[in-house]
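Most newcomers find our protein records easier to grasp once they have seen one. Read left to right, the backbone structure tokens trace the chain's path through space. Once this layout is familiar, the rest of the handout is easier to follow. The record below serves as our worked example for the rest of this section:


***
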Amino acid sequence: MEELAPTHDHDDGWLVSRPEDEAMDGSLLSGLAPQFESWTDANVHAVLIVRHGKLVYENYFAGQDRAWATSLGHVQYRPELKHDLRSITKSITSLLFGIAVDRGLIKDLNEPVFPFFPEHADLRTSEKDQINLRHLLTRSAGLAWDEYLPYSNPANSERRMIDAPDQCRYVLEQPVVRPPGVAYVYNGGLTALLAAILQKTTGRSVDLLAEEMLFHPLGIQDVEWVRYMDGTPNAVSGLRMRPRDLAKIGQTVLSRGIWNGAQIVSEPWVDESTNPHVNGEGLFFYGFQWWLGRSLVRRQEIKWISGVGYGGQRLFIVPELDLVVVVMAGLYDNAALQSIPGEIILRRYALPAVLSA
């Protein structure tokens, strides 16, 4: 376990502060670590809280973990260790797409998708010609897809995509089962298409684009990409990153694209991508690869933006409270539990610590 002192101690661009100096109730936050140290089944690995652009809380725990499919055994986490982001990778891919739009590399989100894939023109139909870039970003392309099966099940659509000799072709050959733009369906294949379009329009793979356009400007130096068998970086769920660096991504979104005074991604893109476009799962709305939800704390409704990753990975961005919360966990074998630690940390600790200060 590590408690922050008000020093600039890792030389990675973060200023650190005490919760009380940033109008948070530190005594309330002091109960967070004991709860998750004793609740070992929650398998929480890291919790970071940023308030007013300063890191005010940082704790690391020990537990079983994996690097994608590879067991790491029992890991004692600390600030310099990377962690799987899983599907928070999708949100970062969306930021890269936005930067490409900002730079004029991609002209119009209403552009149809198939012209980007002339090698698959034989799959085109009048229905599929209605699918545009916006539908990929909002997961509303209308293609048949079943990612709700366990990833251990070979019938899972993402598993089938990974095993296919041509992943983009596998996604594009799926039948249209509803009109594009009508309904959200969880579909990692659409994010894979976004990454392929980025490579086609820039001539560089998504990992190189991320380094140039996002990570280097944020001072993020230590990342790892899980790669497919052909060497392509997995832009759907393959990023591994230090929790401190993921918090930088959250702070940049919170600041409407700004990090340390530099505009990394445009305000219009951040605003549009983090506003609701379609109904997501349950009570959530969905933006451009970002989840949009709300919490009721002390009879006050608080809206938030979230990156969500399998196994309990959570990045919460709370604009009205100037707050970012990062939760890393290893709940890959407990689907029923994996959303609960992040919700408890947000709703029982982080949000009340602001509202009660």
Summary: Residues 1-8 have pLDDT under 50 and may be disordered. The chain has two domains: 1-64+290-357, 81-242.
